[in-house]
Specification:
15 helices; 300 residues; 70% helix; mainly alpha
Length: 300
Amino acid sequence: MQNTSDITEALALGTLLKMSETAAKSFDLPTRVKNGVLNAINRFGSDFLSEEDFKPKSYGSDTVTPYEMAYRIVSQTDNADLKALWYIFYPYLVVASPHIDEALYEKTKAILFDREVLETVLSSRYRELVYDCEEDLQAAGLAGVYVEWYEPYAEYRKETISTGDTREIQTFKKLLTAGEFDAVEKGTGRLLNYDPYNVDVALLNIAAKVALLPGSVEKKTAALNETVEFIDEYIGGCENPKQLAYLHYYRGLCLLGLAASGGDIDGAKAEFQTCLDITPNFERAALMLKAIDEKLSDNG
């Protein structure tokens, strides 16, 4: 799995264990079976988490196998987040088991290889824990079960929807609208590592970078200059008018930010005008030009 500064493997796995334990306690099961499921949850946690991250409990001597435990949880819960976490972590259970219970594996897979589950994974913050591509998995030396297990999710993310976006792009657009700029910058930054010439992804990354500009003048100036250089990598080769207009728009915003600390405001105006030359109905660019002209007029 991939750790980030915000979402760690231990935190997500700890959440899975707590949610699983709560769910199992509510199931209508014979006491011995329920205790066996709870013991299996705790054994699973002990296999992958340190005592600092997880303190296992004992529910007597009753046991069930890890495969039965996972199947009983995913087959009896209606909690989409819990199913999504099991989708993410189920390969751990397989890799840790000396023998695969093929029957329960297939029954569990039938439940978790569900589009609703995949959508929940994609829309949750835990999506950061799933590797972005098969090459990454192989480079990390992970077992083939991970590649097979995550393939449906990889395909689901790439599906094109009615707007022409992939499901993954749509998710990041929603996050951007919701103000989740840090998640957008990190997520699109990872995608650009594998697809550096994807302008749609780059635009989302740029939008998040602009929204996350640091407060101090020195750091802000450095970040703005870096973002301008990043945008310039795409402008020359971009042939899509809408994408190109947005690149110039964000370049204008960066130059406008730099103008506040002694930069060239005319350069910012030129970028917004270029937006309108490319896309005459680009309302944001028109509003920015109007605001700049009014500000200059007020300042004499």
